[in-house]
Amino acid sequence: MSDFLIIGGGVIGMMTALQLADAGQQVTLVERGECGKEASWAGGGIVSPLYPWRYDTAVSQLSRWSEGVYPSLALRLLEETGIDPEYRQKGLLYLNVDDAEDALNWARQLGKPLERVGKDFVGHKEPGVAMAADSALWMPTLGSVRNPRLAKALKTRLAAMPNVTLREQCDVSGFSDSNGQVDGVVSSHGLLKAERIVVCGGAWAAQLLAQLEVRLPVRPVKGQMIAYQAPKGLVRRVVLKDGRYIIPRADGLLLVGSTLEEAGFDKTTDEAALASLKQSAEAMVPALASCPVANQWAGLRPGSPDGVPFIGALPERPNVFVNAGHYRNGLVLAPASTHLLVDQLLGRTPLVDPAPYQLTPARLAAI
């Protein structure tokens, strides 16, 4: 029997497993498909909420902590696995921001570098970017990570740890119960038992918890993205305009995202989204009109009512824990949200006050 059984092999589940294993715990991680191939693979990898000044304090305090962790985490995984998560800290240009004063006030309060810049500055930083307005905002400290490689590195590291058991292609169909307490899961690999269960199922978390008669207000929200194969250096840093972004990779690939669609668990792509994303990208960087679209895909975000994740134990099942509902910020918040949960699992002093994230009746009722 494991000390912990984690359901869900995305970045949240894998980082939870890594921290528990680092602390000497016996961990089993089960994933219905392949680790890191759902929302963790499909996102863009920006290590910040898109417009951080617009978020609840509960999201902001996790994102600020996580942002500081990614450089050392990427270096650790590169050294341990030989896989480079490609953490890049090249900054972000915000174009066409209609609440710039709110953004600047937020930055001053936190001591966060953010400044108003003009066309000459933008032209120097990103010659290929077209500016319609006279000014933009520049955040020099923002970073991004190549999330498919981050997930691959996490999986490789966990597979090498003797106190971690990875079970992929392992579908959980129910929970086992002994004397009124959950003591394991019923899966396609048989009955798997553990002292404590952690549900990190992303957009599928609500389906899992419904089997325990818990109504978690987390739903799938589809996001479609595209990638251009462009000359290296055409765009060198993240550019954001009207909620759409361009993210450069080291090999010249440029990611463009994303749509927000209430479509259940449908992950199909369509021509309307392709046209919309191309229009947004080519308005920001006109030269992309002559570059081929290399790929189009969709992922499912775990949407929650206010974007604040659910982190903690189930009120009626104290040995069943949840870390889900990060909406658009799963990768952004992963280091901090998993650290906060592991603090609770191991009886450590919490990283931050856990109260805003707990599964209280009021929060669970927000469906």
UniProtKB/TrEMBL annotation:
Pfam families: DAO (PF01266). It comes from the Bacteria. The keyword Protein biosynthesis does not apply. Keywords: Oxidoreductase, Thiamine biosynthesis. Its EC number is 1.4.3.19. Residues 3-343 form the FAD dependent oxidoreductase domain. InterPro entries: FAD-dep_OxRdtase (IPR006076), FAD/NAD-bd_sf (IPR036188), Gly_oxidase_ThiO (IPR012727). The keyword Oxidoreductase applies. It is an enzyme of class 1 (oxidoreductase). GO terms for molecular function: glycine oxidase activity. Pathway: Cofactor biosynthesis; thiamine diphosphate biosynthesis. This is Glycine oxidase ThiO.
